[in-house]
Amino acid sequence: MSETGASKPVITTDTLTANIENKLKDCGKWEQFTANLGACQTDYDRITLLTSTPEVNDMIIPQFFRQEKSIEEAEKLRTAGNQHFKSAHYDKALGCYSQAIQYAPPASAENDNSSVLALCFGNRSAAFFYLKQFHLCLIDIENALEAGFPVSLMHKLLDRKGKCCLFMKRKHEAIAAFEQAKETLQNAAGVQDKGKQDMAFLMDQFIKKCRSLPEEKSEDEAVEFVHTPLPTLTASSHQIPCAADFLTLQNHETRGRGLYAKRDIKVGEVLIIEKPYASVVLSDRTLTHCHHCCVRCFVPLPCEKCVDVVFCSRQCRQAAVESYHSTECQLMSCFHGGDVRLGHLAYKMVAKAGYDYLMSQRDALEYPPQKDPGQFGLDEKGVYDSENYATMYHLVGHSDKHTVKCIFSRAVKAIFLLRCLEQTSFFPALDDRPDSAEKRRVDACYIGSHILRHLQMLPCNAHEVSELGINWEEPSASPTLEIGSAIYPVLSLINHSCDPSVVRHSYADVCVVRAIRSIPAGEEIYDNYGALHPVMDYAARQKHLKKQYFFDCACEACVKNWPLYIDIPRDSVNFYCENCRGRVPVPAIANANSLDTMACLDCGKKQNIRGHILKVGSLERSFQEALHKVIFSLDVEGDALQHLVHFLRVVDKYVHRPFSSHNDCQEAIKLCYAYKGNAYPRTKRSGNRLP
Ligand SMILES: C[S@@+](CC[C@H](N)C(=O)[O-])C[C@H]1O[C@@H](n2cnc3c(N)ncnc32)[C@H](O)[C@@H]1O
């Protein structure tokens, strides 16, 4: 790795693959090489072939370009921030201070300019204060104190803390901060005695004001900045701990493993709350979203060593460093320059599992004790646990269906990532034993085979981590933004339908799965793989699913060729036949009283379903009102969501899909749930400004 940090041109792994292909063609070895690659049976054989072919191996040298922490750069950015601050451009000042914080090295024994980081935090706290973001200001004051804020300026920081607490009506904290501020005045540099007296007088005035405040309980606003509190499962499954106890894992002849309902599941019930085994934020979000949990950072905290990632809290930073960040810190620009995309996730999965685990589990992973593929990933107690690496190892990869060229490009990427891993402390150091180098070569091929395996399975198993980009003017037009990618071993068990029964939402990087239509006992749970029947026609859906997921969809919407949303007939609704669950067409729900007996289109039986029609019709008004509240005002605090859920439960009982009101209701419910998860900005009035 370059120790100089000098800028070097960076080549993407796609270009690298093309260059290697050209080189092999130029020397007439391409045909034989691809034939050999096509004949390889395992990922280990594939990695071994590429690494033992000099024309390939010698070209896969990641270019390491890293930007170091720099006091000079930090000071430059802090000065720019101060200029914006003086002109009362607090938003711009905030941006500069956040960048300065990225570059400022933390305090250390060798680093006598240690207060730069603390000063940057202090400056940013001032910008938050003037933006009236008192909660965020307090966090940065704590950051400044932790980073060693200079004693000579401490009175200013504590005075700001007092004022923040006063604005937030935290009476006792405010008094304590002003008292402390007064005490530290004696150390204030460059302030005459008279100035100190004036300041102390003002602080006393504030203390008086605080004392006159009523006693109030302060509320923790922190969670509201990013998402509402996580829901809970009523009871969790013994077999799949992050899933509800009414789900079970089964194997289907053509669809493979899937999750099934053990009892009737109602619209709105929570089925799964899963933390990913690993997640990554997208490369354009690395300075706005937490590297560990993907949540939007309002007070970004830098990594202490690299300038490329931010964390939302000390806890996340510590968890990342202890688990995997030490094996990627300083390599982030290499991943971005190499444009490895999902490769970073594959890398992180292997880094998190660790060398010792992967070596010790080699036999168990390659030759699982279970004979039935439907049982793969279950541990010795029969538990399918998302924290168990074996669950991911056995996710469907379809490696037999990829073209040789595709395997080649993924294998190049895997070796690129392996070389990155080799730059870190992941592998044990070579020792003096004569076979040490050879053992390392074999180990490296084995670790590389895991990266390649994940690169093949991630395109059909990884999920996005999302955030609702709230458009307060037109809530129904709020886009769902992709902020990261993650691997959830349980979610990955859910098969696809173009008419899904569940919907997923992110709370930080935790995924919450809820029922979006009624699911009868025994039915399989269906997610959607980006091919929804109301908005994508049959041919486009089939093409997408075949290309990325290698199957022909035979869901009800596909088999019955349901129309697109805009083409769903509005002049007639099909109710369930009491005899055969077939279709009884009803021309106008509103005129149910005038309707007589009607015949089922499927079994021909005549019946009077006026009672059912009236039940649906009686909800029409509350449904429309709730829909209006959600779609036009994103009013999710009242009972709108409850009305929508009730409407859907009743409609599901009596009416066949497709039914346009069913779609409208589902979309409104999804918007409510999306708002409860990651959503930004969460308030209409001020928004939460992004540093
Ligand atoms: C994310 S995995 C789902 C879990 C998978 N069935 C398993 O056994 O691990 C996606 C893969 O499952 C299969 N699959 C998903 N939905 C399907 C469907 N509706 N029909 C047939 N196969 C399906 C396809 O092979 C697809 O690539």
Automatic annotation (TrEMBL):
The entry's keywords: Methyltransferase, S-adenosyl-L-methionine, TPR repeat, Transferase
UniProt domain SET: residue ranges: 231-530
Highest taxon listed in the record's lineage: Eukaryota
Gene Ontology molecular function terms on file: methyltransferase activity
CDD domains the UniProt entry points to: SET_SMYD4
Record bears the keyword Transferase: yes
TPR repeats: 74-107
Keyword S-adenosyl-L-methionine in record: yes
Single biological process term from Gene Ontology: methylation
Alphabetized InterPro entries for the sequence: SET-MYND_domain_protein, SET_dom, SET_dom_sf, SMYD4_SET, TPR-like_helical_dom_sf, TPR_rpt
Protein name as catalogued: SET domain-containing protein
Organism field: Batillaria attramentaria
Lineage of the organism: Eukaryota, Metazoa, Spiralia, Lophotrochozoa, Mollusca
